[in-house]
Amino acid sequence: MNLNRKIRLFFLSAAALAMVAFVSIPATAALGKSVVMVPESFSELAKHAKPAVVNIRTVKVTKEGGRVFKHFYGQPFGDKDPFREFFEPFLRQQPQKDYRQQSLGSGFIISSDGYIVTNNHVVAEADEIKVKLYDDKEYDAKMVGTDSKTDLALIKIDVKGLDYLELGDSDVLEVGTWVVAIGSPFGLEQTVTAGIVSAKGRIIGSGPYDDFIQTDASINPGNSGGPLLNLEGEVVGINTAIVASGQGIGFAIPSKLAAGIVDQLRSSGEVTRGWMGVAIQDITPELAEYYNLKEKSGVLVAKVYKGDPADKAGIVPGDVITHVKGDVVTSSRDLSTAIAGLGVGSKVPVTLVRDGKAKTVFVVLVKRTDSEQGEALVQSGFDEFGLNLQALDSTNAEQLGYAKEVRGLVVTDIEPEGKAAASGIRQGDLLSEVNHIRVKTMDEYVATLAKIKKGEAVQLLFRRGNTSFIAVRFTKQ
Fold first, then answer.
1. Domain of 140: which CATH number?
2. What's the pTM value of the predicted model, to 2 decimals?
3. For this structure, is 224 an active site residue?
4. DSSP 3-state assignment of 378?
5. pLDDT for residue 244
6. What are the beta bridge partners of residue 63?
7. Bind-site residues
8. Whether residues 230 and 262 fall in one domain
9. Which residue in 172, 264, 358, 473 has its CB near the most CB atoms, within 10 A?
10. pLDDT the model gives residue 24
11. What is the pLDDT of residue 372?
């Protein structure tokens, strides 16, 4: 029987008792209502959820030399080990020995026929995967598929009639909500911990799709891959990471993100992400002012990759994307995640703002590709803002990583005491517009500045490599 149904039946039948199961404190004037505090017990939730939580043990077999080989290679002289030349001919004659590297983790069953969700880092490159159920029965598991970018994996055991958990909607999860983690920290199976959601949308630098739920429910090594549950017994997150130096800080992959990944792994064994072919960046207050945006929302298109879907749809650098399939886009991460979650071949309506006017184009997605970046040149000399500029030609455009046809003025040096030094502009940035007027040569730049009166604003728009725009504002002296 589906565990979530069991749990819902329990909570419905115990509705009267639930009023007693919480302690309320008097309302503050600001809140205007009572505040629900700690649940009296998580025991029923744990009792019903634990049969679907598994312990995962993996073995990776590697071939290495004997003790002498391990002792001398790389210690303590690194690659220039003086003993290597002497010992290597003898060591090569020794038969290599198999070494079994073991690791532990957690997972949870998502279907009665044995599909199990866990973390990629728990099972990646494993030669053997063993799954231990709640009743201590152990089974060999086979790999169905993994996704390193989100650190998710799907494995399967050949068993029928298993209890399982359902993925809930992490989008409706609120900060301060009670959650329960179940797993095998330090190999201690079926450990239950409880806490609250501390934050959402955390970016911890683990990959391009970071969007973690932060919780203070105790999560330790071995919890990886286990479920983070709401009080209805639904999985709202997959426990994944901890902060080594932190106390009581854990991170879980949101179930909303995991659901699409798991579906793809189950159907095809791999994840294929949509790609529209743009480099994007968040809208800063300066960029919002420069592009006359009423609200600081949407993402700025910094580059369009030639021949890719966005280019074919007519999107150009400087466009501000505000919606995808009618959903509001507030950050570059929103757009990346939305596009990545759509299937290759999808025809996606994209709403953008260009020159203050909104329009919708249709982008047919292809398989995701990689972007590129260039490096900078350096020279010297300064204008009134403390910038040294040099016209970009086809030769130095390639050196900087731009397309040959790109034109503008590259920043070759910045005066340490000048205005530009504190503006965030860097060597290698490409000045392309002054007060919305394109400038490609030094003569055009000087002529445009000459038309601006003393005391008036000077807005400069720069490109940084192929991936972003920078807008700065100075006052004409």
1. 2.40.10.120
2. 0.63
3. yes
4. coil
5. 64
6. 98
7. 121, 151, 222-224, 240-244
8. yes
9. 264
10. 41
11. 33
